[in-house]
Design goal:
By secondary structure, this protein is mainly α. 51% of the residues lie in helices and 10% in strands.
Amino acid sequence: MKKLLATAALALLPVLGFANTGGPALEEANIDLRDQASLQSGARYFMSYCSGCHSLQYMRYNRMAADLGISDADLRKYFLVGDAKPGDLMTRAMTVADAEKWFGVPSPDLTLVTRWRSPDWVYTYLKSFYLDPTRPYGVNNPLFPNVAMPHILGDLQGPQQPVMSHGAGTPVAVGAKLIKQGRLTAPQYDAMVRDITAFLTYVGEPIQQERKRLGVYVLMFLGVFFIFAYFLKKEYWKDVD
């Protein structure tokens, strides 16, 4: 038992060490996947600002429209890109060659970004760009240092300056502070980023709400089955000393 506890403590040391470095803290996204209006807004924002560079290559346009209550007319008018058809996968407009030429690396597919990063990470990331004249696009991000991505929402949020941590070693950015308001107020920008995060969370697992709904019935069935199994066990073992 002591060896097991010692092994667990050693495994947690890197995590505890990182937690004490004063690294960037994640804000709570507080998304609601039952809010269809939020998901629709997030889908529109994604198509307007993100789909030129980033794909959702495991999601189809018509599946998204059916789940989010988007009519076929609106889907064709506001969401389809180029020659895309409703049954096509949501690929990006930019080619891989162009992405490597302009950004140095291919822009990643975002279908599963909230699954391997978390919604809170995506929400905080989109709020944390700050001015950095040493970077090719003039911005950096404490959650993704030396990020190659420009702040595509910068004119909406407004410019930010880094919040630095002056602990042991070289100072590092642990956050960002707004210098001047952009086209949106801070609450409006937060709501926009929350909608985008909610949409990306839906895309990462479209069946999530249905899975949770069915899970309730499964647990109810198991509860009832357990009662019958318990009394059946008592009946089988009643004559056993």
